[in-house]
């Protein structure tokens, strides 16, 4: 990559130019050590795409890629597969499938997921394809500048057309993977709006202000509207065999240009079938 330097910085020493770069200090140090940062006249050349040793063994599966460029990959995750291994030696996660895709397409890069979604939740997962993008996306996540919108099929009649659930979430002392609303938990805020009212169910769109584990599932259960199919948090498994939660849309800024990017993931078949059945009743 090349950056055109302002006139007042042309000819300046590298030590002064590094303060001008939107890069993490750790990455600047690495670029300097590997001669990945060079000045050529009025241009600053950055070697942001080095070949990397893959960090996951590849497990092939067909991927639904929603977006890709030299900095970013967005994959539509199916139900029943974890984003990342949850225990040592685990295989056939989305990370292993992305590693296989990188290998097949000749991209010698590491797998860097920016956020996770639950095993049985579907929708977009964002990946950074180099250290620079990883730094920018991690920063954007901390500053709540990456927006994730979800569709959920909640049980019952959700009152009001819009609302906010502001309840802290902590770990359930009696269940290692379950979460619960707790005064001593971490702050958690979920915004929702009603999309469609169906028989004994409500289709809602949700926006996360925070990203706690199981946040939507815990919050909807806490207002007595658990997700259809979500047995862990009180939902019935009649209309769906998994929690009815889907990542509908992902909105982010490009790490290099700053331009807004967005993708929308189509509803999976089982979710559509559940909606069709409820609409017919």
UniProtKB/TrEMBL annotation:
It is an enzyme of class 5 (isomerase). Pfam families: PseudoU_synth_2 (PF00849). Residues 165-184 are annotated as: Disordered. The keyword Isomerase applies. Residues 73-222 form the Pseudouridine synthase RsuA/RluA-like domain. Its EC number is 5.4.99.-. Responsible for synthesis of pseudouridine from uracil. It comes from the Bacteria. GO terms for molecular function: isomerase activity. It catalyses: a uridine in RNA = a pseudouridine in RNA. Keywords: Isomerase. Belongs to the pseudouridine synthase RluA family. This is Pseudouridine synthase. The lineage of its organism: Bacteria, Bacillati, Bacillota, Bacilli, Bacillales. Residues 165-174 have a biased composition (Basic and acidic residues).
